[in-house]
Amino acid sequence: MTALTHSWFKDIDLKRLAEQAGTPVFVYSEAQFRKNLGRVKDAAAAAGLGERVELYIPFFPNSNPHVLEPLKDVDGVGILVQLPSEYRILREFGFEKFIVSPGHVSDREIAFWDETGHPTFLASLDEVAYSLRTDAPTISVRIDSLDSGKPGIKYGELGQLAALLKEYERDLEGLEVYCGSGNSLEEMVGIVEQVFSIYLEHFPTARSINFAGGHGFDYDAWTESEKHFDWHEYFRRIAQSAARMEIPEDVTFLFEPARDVLADTGALLLDIERGVITTPVSSILVTNGCRMLMPSAQLRDRNHNVAFLDSAMREITGGATTSAAVRGRTILRNDYILPGDVQVPEGVGAGCHLVILDVGAYCATQHMEFLNVPPAAEVLIAADGTMNLVTSAGGELDKWRHLLTEKTPVKQ
Ligand SMILES: Cc1ncc(COP(=O)(O)O)c(C=O)c1O
Fold it and tell me: Name one GO biological process term (predicted).
């Protein structure tokens, strides 16, 4: 078994890809994305929730409309947006099924969303009051089950919310509750039951309950079954709780998974610039990447799995290895792409390549312009195997694309 045994990445003509698109390049698989969506939907059907479950994949973790195109044709699947600009671009690309979770916003922005008619999960009593006063077509709310700093109506405000709705003789369409990432499946089921209790106590006429995201993905695992969230067990338990707590069968259940359906659809291909440099201080592997291409790895202390390719793009496996840190191409002291060391096989040097796996969510979208490093290109491998450039690499002067040639006085 090799690092790429389980990855769609091994089937690609990487030589052609690197020649045409250059490196660094993010590569995405349509087939893997469809497979991941199918896995969640199959699990819902197996638990008897097939007709009741809707998925809304958040746009911000991978903001490429080409990559997300399958969301247009898979049944029961839509897209979650948070900004009018996201909505506008997705409409231009022909997306139609949306929900909106905008955080805290102005009256003007609420009016924009109300005009679209899509369920919009408002995050405070003040924002809900505006929608009620303006006779919004539909009212949904976001509840902060963790009573944290996250946008959302707090537990202690639910009575007030119910009274406000009553005053205007309106019902909630949906309630969204973020169940929190990093929770065990058992804890997540506990939160589901809490949400059902909120529904029953305060909003028994709501049409949908939205459990948001936070469904774990194991970046250290290699096989698909180990990496992905256990949707079978999760849905089975939700179906059990819903039946026991007598949640009406026509109430739909919404989910907003990002990592679980997107992470293993992407890989980052880099050039290795020279053999491992070992000094009395450390061993480093010099690449043409940069931590600014995917800052989430360092920020979240996430060690993505990697693979090494020779100059003919064949995977290098076996033999002795040297433990080394993956160095980016800038002078910054901590320009290390991954937080930990990788095991570099003997013989890896200039002309070889490094593949960083599971970068389909929260990676290319978080690219920072710090250090003047332009963003990487993105290539989508279609389900039939054809390759398409979907984002061109940032130009050499990308960092300065909005720089004015002349200072322009701000008008008095
Ligand atoms: C409102 C909302 N929905 C969905 C998600 C996706 O979460 P995950 O990547 O854990 O599935 C997030 C992540 O920040 C979120 O804030």
Answer: lysine biosynthetic process via diaminopimelate
Ligand 1 centre to CA of 227 (Å) is 17
- CB within 8 A of 164, min separation 6: which ones? 125, 128, 129, 132
Centre of ligand 1 from the C-alpha of residue 80, in Å? 10
pLDDT at 43: 98
Q: Is the CB of 258 under 6 A from ligand 1?
A: yes
Taking the CA of residue 214 as reference, the ligand 1 atom at the shortest distance is 10
Tell if the pTM clears 0.90, that is, is over it.
yes
pLDDT at 180: 66
Kindly state which CATH superfamily the domain 31-261 is placed in: Alanine racemase (3.20.20.10)
What's the rounded mean pLDDT across residues 196-210?
96
Ligand 1 probe mutation, 79, 141, 181, most atoms within 8 A of CB: 181
Q: Does domain 8-26+264-394 have CATH number 2.40.37.10?
A: yes
Domain range list for the chain: 8-26+264-394, 31-261
Asked whether 121 and 144 are in contact (CB, 8 A), the reply is no
